[in-house]
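Thread: Modeling a multi-component assembly for a lab meeting

Hi all, long-time lurker, first post. My supervisor asked me to bring a structural picture of a complex we are working on to next week's group meeting, and I have zero experience with this. I have the sequence lines for every component (798 residues in total). Could someone generate the structure of the whole assembly? Inputs are pasted exactly as I received them:
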Amino acid sequence: MRNTNQHTGTPYAATGAWLQGHEVGHRSFFTFAIQRPFTLDSGASLRDVTLVYETWGTLNEDQSNAILICHAWTGDSHVAGEAEQGHPTPGWWEGVVGPGQAVDTNKYFVVCSNVLGGCQGSTGPTSPHPDDGAPYALRFPAVTIRDMVRAQAWLADSLGINTWHSVIGGSMGGMQVLEWAITYPLRVKSIVPIATCIESSAQQIAWGAIGRRALLMDPLWNNGDYYSAAPDQGPWHGLAIARMIAQVTFRTDNRFNEKFGRELCDTNFHSDGVDLFDRFEVENYLDYHGDKLIRRFDANSYLYIGKAMDLHDVGRGRGGVSRAMSRITVPTLTIGIDSDILYPAYQQELLHESVRQNHPLTRYVQISSPEGHDGFLIETAKISTEISNFLFALEEASS
Amino acid sequence: MRNTNQHTGTPYAATGAWLQGHEVGHRSFFTFAIQRPFTLDSGASLRDVTLVYETWGTLNEDQSNAILICHAWTGDSHVAGEAEQGHPTPGWWEGVVGPGQAVDTNKYFVVCSNVLGGCQGSTGPTSPHPDDGAPYALRFPAVTIRDMVRAQAWLADSLGINTWHSVIGGSMGGMQVLEWAITYPLRVKSIVPIATCIESSAQQIAWGAIGRRALLMDPLWNNGDYYSAAPDQGPWHGLAIARMIAQVTFRTDNRFNEKFGRELCDTNFHSDGVDLFDRFEVENYLDYHGDKLIRRFDANSYLYIGKAMDLHDVGRGRGGVSRAMSRITVPTLTIGIDSDILYPAYQQELLHESVRQNHPLTRYVQISSPEGHDGFLIETAKISTEISNFLFALEEASS
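Re: Modeling a multi-component assembly
Sure thing. I ran the full set together rather than chain by chain. Output:
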């Protein structure tokens, strides 16, 4: 199941990238050559860009069986597989990706890389600045979804993959999917954007921006310079609040009612919970999710990636959304979730409408689920069925 | 239009309250007698409770034309009328309440009091503690919607109003409306709850709790003790963030798209807004609303009133929601707003379903509006029509 990478240590002339691949635990590290700085949408450039990725399955002779999975905001490369060192939880899309699954790793060579700007090994604000070896922190330049995708393209080059059989992802992963198809229309044969959008809406920006404001207010954030602080002296309160806001938008009113209702979370109550600081069970749940995130995610990465999502607009610099979307001519399976309040189904419908004429296999499916936005992670059976059918139709059409 | 209060200075035997009414500017102050402490749901009690209220119109001979308006979270008693000292903006329900309006002040004697726990003159965390004259701050006990309503009942007693012709309010005002009808079924002849709920949902609690967490994180909140700090040294960042969260839930995705879309808010951009700290217009709007609130509202009051809303559950201590709602046998006009994401229309339907058999004039109206929850403040024409029709039907039925 591990990728045996034949390019290790080989300069890859086409992009000037140098793959210094090596494996640590189960992960592979990919480093761009410093000869060609990686220029970002902001105009800034990065040296020594590293992407950490995982692979499953084997790339075939003609490199035609590669599928790229793109992860969401606080996701990572660990799409499938058991918990392991560096991945305290099993793969986030077990049930969709794996041997015999919809994205069948017996058949496809599956790749997922941690995004640029993140904190799971790929270059981001926690990485050492080449000048002084100290973390970039706020010296890290703003990144966009396009920057993430261009970095992935260099990785694809180095893996010898010219064209992806499919690029698949939900939420921010879906934004990358769209940017792949628009930036590199000849390098994708099909795409599956899920619970995402062609441009972030004002409400999405508002939620993201408020979370960032909360994080910035934490005095321990210290203008982004907290890496040398004691472990308990990071901006964890601020990051937790940002996460709590997101967590509510990831779920639904109905689901919260079912799970928590008006249950109080402590048992030793006086006066029926009528105290300013008594808590309901749903607050306990939010605390849990806030606490879980601060143990695994960097606060500055949260800022940078959140901003990248706010900046997501496939039309920027391309003459508008319609012109950008017209570049997508490959089969496109768009999946929306009916209860999603963060990336509402109407956004998937808009996405689909803008490409539906472009290929006969292009289709839209709205999944019925009580899980809200998180349905893209939870409803693996429904999503698998749709992806399976789509990949099968592609195969039929090409045979 | 000003209330000439005939009870000023008269002890009101029925409740043991002493009305020390006097007018400052256009407002009236009402103080409970200290002989009878005001006991709260939490078990704590308050001495020297003050309610500040405004009135419009004239109470008739048989005291049968009194209508109580209940305000929402950061609202106040200034329902109608021009901007004036202490009220920098015109009445928040101009167009619904006034001479010749749906709630016609030529006909009705209209009362609105600032809620207990607030910061507009009624007793709250900013008020002097009777022991030492310093602000209560966190020494203030938790208050509930029922506490607010019981205080209003004492005010009604002192005004000589035994029975309200109607009690009307939206959002937290609607919670008070329900508590009036359930706590004092013989003291209301009709009610109009708007965009509210019979019990706060887990999602509503979540939004409220996250806002409070943000406020508590502000180091200048200082455990609630900021009243002697310099004017710019209050917990304004935290309060603004709490308000921003609320503001998004008050509006809608569609409306935000129409108003702001993806407009950037500054004009001197480099690189298309691709910077961690560049802002979109919607962020500017949120800043504006955060900033506006911190200039007019007390941070601790925001905590206490928010908690009161989370604690809202008409069934608490009454054998459940159904039993509580069965006490409402008066004509009830429930108004929901189709685009409301904070108090979704299904909550108004539940409310209506629980009382619909109880009176033939009881009805439910769902208003179509793009304004979301704030529609209860903005859609004055539509709301006026419904209230007019309802009050007219009551009159017809009783004539």
